[in-house]
Amino acid sequence: MVLFPPAKLNLGLHILGRRPDGFHALESIFLPLSWTDILEVVVDPEVPAGALRTTFTGLPIPGTIEDNLVVRAHALLTQNHELPGLHLLLHKVLPMGGGLGGGSADGTFALRAIHDACGLQLPQDILLELAAQLGSDCPFFVKNVPSLVTGRGEHVQPLDFALPLEGWWVVVVNPGIHISTAEAFSDITPNADSMDWTQLATLPVASWGTVLRNDFEKGAMERHPSIERCLQALRDHGAGYAQMTGSGSTVYGLFAEESQAQTAALKLGAQYVGALG
Predict the structure, then answer these.
(1) What CATH topology corresponds to 2-158?
(2) If both were cysteines, with which of 161, 184, 225, 260 could 247 make a disulfide (CB 3.0 to 4.6 Å apart)?
(3) What residue spans define the domains of the chain?
């Protein structure tokens, strides 16, 4: 079972306020990219029943093995299911701590891969509940389609309108800065105003900045000026819309012309450039 956990981009990221459970309420559109890690799960007769052997390649993954979301996904499923011995291989391509959701995608896709490899046949609502236990961004990756995400991230509604991104290109730049969750939230000023997200269907992309914001962006730029420089460089090279994604530090620009996107990607040393829509 081989799957390709993708990066996601936030189109706007509005922090509405703190919830009674301590989490922050948010609104954002999540967009999956074709920029992915690679994950494989196989039944391994040399691994004891219920155990998981892991192999990690590619970019180094910080933290303990117990905290890795792919391991936690396996642990969740073993609570209520008898699993065979499994071998999970993860090749890490997506940068970590950059707001791209790569760790959340890996955990959720591990959940899906283990589920499928073991023939568990759980309904999707159960997979969504399990993903929500892994992390706030994880439920999005169960369906993995453009969606409006609300709550703390656990409410995922696939878009029932089309974004005007047919023929547009995206350039993604990671400046190599790791922003922790604590740092990201340290100077957030919530804004309780909600918005009508369907207006993006008819609003020109070049005007999206009048209604969209990433509430993490201001503080991140103040602490790390290179983020602001990357955003401005994307605009200077013709991006119709540019924004930091997630809690940062990765930024992206949307381009109407492939030639502009390729030039910007070359000049900025972008890690990813690709077509949208």
Answers:
(1) Ribosomal Protein S5; domain 2 (3.30.230)
(2) 184
(3) 2-158, 169-275
Active-site residue identified among 37, 106, 137, 215 = 137
**Known active-site residue 116:** no
**3-state helix/strand/coil string of the chain:** CEECCEEEEEEEEEEEEECCCCCEEEEEEEEEEEEECEEEEEECCCCCCCCEEEEEEECCCCCCHHHCHHHHHHHHHHCCCCCCCEEEEEEECCCCCCCCCHHHHHHHHHHHHHHHHCCCCCCHHHHHHHHHHHCCCCCHHHHCCCEEEECCCCEEEECCCCCCCCCCEEEEECCCCCCCHHHHHCCCCCCCCCCCHHHHHCCCHHHHHHCCCECCHHHHHHHCHHHHHHHHHHHHCCCCEEEECCCCCCEEEEECCHHHHHHHHHHHCCCEEEECC
pLDDT tens-digit map of 196-220: 999 999 999 999 999 999 999 999 9
Strand 52-58 versus strand 86-92 pairing type: parallel
Task: Provide the b/e sequence for 105-144 (b: ≥16 CB within 10 Å).
Answer: bbbbbbbbbbbebbeeeeeeeebbebbbebbbbbbbbbeb
Q: Which of 8, 92, 106, 215 is catalytic?
A: 8
Contacts for 259 with CB less than 8 Å, ≥ 6 apart = none
Distance CA 33, CA 48 (A): 36
Instruction: Specify the fold of 169-275.
Output: Alpha-Beta Plaits (3.30.70)
pTM (2 d.p.): 0.94
Q: What angle do CA 23, 25, 27 make, to 5 degrees?
A: 140
Angle between helices 124-134 and 102-117 (to 10 degrees): 140
pLDDT tens figures, 29-53: 999 999 999 999 999 999 999 999 9
